[in-house]
Automatic annotation (TrEMBL):
ATP binds at residues 96, 201, 222, 276, 280. The record marks 27 as: Transition state stabilizer. GO terms for molecular function: ATP binding; isopentenyl phosphate kinase activity; kinase activity. It comes from the Eukaryota. SUPFAM superfamilies: Carbamate kinase-like. Keywords: ATP-binding, Isoprene biosynthesis, Kinase, Nucleotide-binding, Transferase. This is Isopentenyl phosphate kinase. Its EC number is 2.7.4.26. PANTHER family: GLUTAMATE 5-KINASE, ISOPENTENYL PHOSPHATE KINASE. Belongs to the isopentenyl phosphate kinase family. InterPro entries: AceGlu_kinase-like_sf (IPR036393), Asp/Glu/Uridylate_kinase (IPR001048), Fosfomycin_R_FomA-type (IPR024192). Residues 14-297 form the Aspartate/glutamate/uridylate kinase domain. It comes from Populus euphratica (Euphrates poplar). Pfam families: AA_kinase.
Length: 335
């Protein structure tokens, strides 16, 4: 039985943002962050949160020493003019080149904590993903965003045969109430039946969306959106709009299937222990079934900036490149 805490968030959630692992890390370089993308995305998030006549001056909150810096500085008076609507956002990020190698090498996602290799891999995976989480929190904090890193394992999230079993959302709710942005991540967690597994960021977002009821969800990826086949292939078609019906199945609205030469394909990288694009689409469909529009868009672009700020809600602008997945109610849908 799935266990959740009673939420008491005092403000409605505007948006849950997923920072895709392939967008925020260099996926072919082990444990290397895509510094440029992370910096741009952090800035775009700050812009999306600015309300009223808030100062545009960035007041950093990472007061720790950084390489190449002699010290830290903080002018207390500057913080009186800050007005970020931060508590209406929640951030979840994937692992990318952090964690996946360790999990795949040791078989953490398959369970078996009684095996020394799996137990070692569990520790190694969590070291890797929490290291990335800290760096994402620091990047957001440097943009003046009051971010708090939260690990599902430490918050008591567990699974049963790889399905969500327990998710204590009390700390997430308290952070939101206190004006912080919770920053969660894909994590190695305990499993009631197989000992342990990997809980993906996409599953975490679906669970958060069900209880926080955001106005919309944005997935930031390393490609423009969902394609009918791997985007590196010739003539790959960007799917602009996907409709989800009552039974949770989905079909392509724009372009129509008649305009496409193939059915939709999903691929998973050999080292990906969380399901890749196949999981992303299925989890997004479950979110859309709740009546929450899901936007999948390339990170660090003008298109991602518009999606984060809510400027593409409703009828899609013709010049916006990305994919929206939304609920359409009754009707047949072919997968």
């Amino acid at each position: 039985m799935e266990d959740t805490s009673t939420l008491s968030a005092t403000k409605p959630i505007r948006c849950i943002v997923k920072l895709g692992g392939a967008a925020i890390t260099c996926k072919n370089d082990l444990e290397k962050i895509n510094e440029e993308n992370v910096e741009i995305v952090s800035s775009q998030l700050r812009e999306a949160m600015i309300t009223g006549s808030s100062s545009r001056k960035v007041l950093g909150m990472d007061w720790s020493k950084r390489p190449g810096k002699s010290g830290i500085s903080c002018d207390a008076d500057d913080f009186e003019d800050q007005n970020l609507d931060s508590s209406s956002f929640v951030v979840v990020h994937g692992a990318g080149s952090f964690g996946h190698f360790q999990a795949s090498k040791s078989g953490v996602h398959k369970g078996g904590l009684n095996k020394p290799l799996v137990k070692a891999g569990f520790v190694a995976t969590r070291i890797s993903v929490t290291t990335l989480n800290l760096e994402i929190v620091r990047a957001l904090a440097r943009e003046g965003i009051p971010s708090i890193g939260m690990s599902p394992f430490s918050c008591g999230w567990t699974t049963s045969e790889r399905n969500m079993a327990s998710a204590d959302l009390s700390m997430v709710a308290q952070a939101i109430n206190s004006g912080f942005i919770p920053v969660l991540h894909g994590d190695a967690v305990l499993d009631d039946l197989q000992g342990c597994t990997i809980l993906s960021g996409d599953v975490i977002i679906r669970h958060l969306a069900a209880y926080l009821k955001p106005e919309y969800v944005v997935f930031l990826t390393d490609v423009l959106g969902v394609y009918d086949r791997p985007p590196s292939e010739p003539n790959a078609v960007l799917l602009r709009e996907i409709a989800v019906s009552v039974d949770g199945s989905w079909s392509v609205v724009k372009p129509t299937l008649e305009d496409m030469k193939t059915q939709v394909e999903t691929t998973v990288a050999a080292h990906d222990t969380t399901g890749g694009m196949a999981t992303k689409i299925s989890e997004a469909a479950l979110i859309a079934k709740l009546g929450i529009d899901v936007y999948i868009v390339k990170a660090a672009t003008t298109h991602s900036s518009r999606a984060l700020s809510g400027k593409v809600r409703g009828a899609l602008p013709e010049d916006w490149l990305g994919t929206v997945i939304r609920f359409v109610g009754e009707g047949n849908s072919n997968c």
